[in-house]
Amino acid sequence: MLKDILDKAAIDGSISQEEALFLLDKVQTIEALMELAKTASRIRDDALGNVFKFDGFIGPITACKIDPPCKYCGRSAGIRTDFSEEKTLTIDEIELASRLMKDAGIKRVELGGGTLLDGSGQKVIEAVKAVNKVASLNIWINVGPSLSSDDLAQLKGLGAKEVCSSLETINPDVFAKMKPGDSLEARMKLAREINSIGLGLASVMMVGLGSSNEDYVKHLFWLKEFENLSHFCITGLNPLHGSQIQGQNMANSFEVAKVGAVARLVLRTKDISFGGMMNDPRLLPLWIMAGGNRAIHLGAHLHRAKAWGQPHPGALVERFGEVEFVNMLPLTTRFVREMGMEVDII
């Protein structure tokens, strides 16, 4: 039955919820994962071409006021002090970051930050204007449910390409347990508003948080209904030392890759990336095998100095006052090319 499902998905492009669940339940061996990965890679190449995209990241542009913080977050573990109001990037630093991204060959950037439940529209709009002032980059926004429909309209008018509404899980009980200060309904509402206004919708699902395979399938097919869905990221839980869930099991990269490969069968023409514990260049070949075609944090990023720990060997690091610019492209583009893909940078 595995071969029948994969053959049908490759030939006529259809996969049902029942078939997606079968794949998640039954792909438990290296051999089965390889068959799934071959199909996912073929679908990616046929639908999007043999090209891998690298994004830049600039942030945080907004503080995070979620209280209590999400249990898996660095704020919960006390190690992400850069999400405080006084540590967010200034307009000058955002402009600097944009110039550095352009010079590094980056085409698209995420302006990322924490969630301000009373709204962060003006801060985000000013950040987008700062990027536009110095560089022609495709901009996408990820600041949680902090944007109104009017904010979204203004961002579209400024040329923003995507806005993210990250659910992590579609299971309300798991969401409430892991994100007790956040709102699943607010995030689902934001996704609907992003789609309705005609912006690209980006979204994130986390493997290992406590969701079931049935939840993953429900989540994928919920996203499939959005005509403007453009980018789906699959992350894996990394329980940080000092957090409330430090004793919970880390997600298995095998499972993250499997969910990503099934996502490729369901969301054939959309950009698929990986994140969380998968943000390791040593796992990049696994992303590619699973049908991924885009990376957020393996391109280049600018943030508060030392906020992200020790850079990977091979990354280029430059310090500019209180911020650092980490360019991973010399390392990660080599990996992608050695996997037989082209790289979408200038």
What do you see in this structure?
The model has no long low-confidence stretch (mean pLDDT 95). α2 (17-26) runs antiparallel to α10 (213-224), α6 runs parallel beside α7 (149-157) and α7 packs parallel to α9 (184-197). This protein has a single domain (2-344), classed as Aldolase class I (TIM Barrel, Alpha-Beta Barrel), CATH 3.20.20. It has 13 helices and eleven strands. The protein has helices spanning 2-12, 17-26, 30-48, 74-77, 91-104, 121-134, 149-157, 172-178, 184-197, 213-224, 253-266, 284-289, 329-338, and strands spanning 51-58, 108-112, 138-142, 162-164, 200-207, 229-236, 271-276, 294-304, 316-320, 323-327, 342-344. The protein is globular and about 55 Å long. The longest helix is centred in the first third of the chain and has 19 residues, at 30-48. It has 346 residues and is α/β, with parallel strands linked by helices. β3 (138-142), α7 (149-157) and β4 (162-164) form a beta-alpha-beta unit. Helix content is 42%, strand content 19%. Strands 1, 2, 3, 4, 5, 6, 7, 8, 9, 10 and 11 form an eleven-stranded mixed beta sheet that branches.
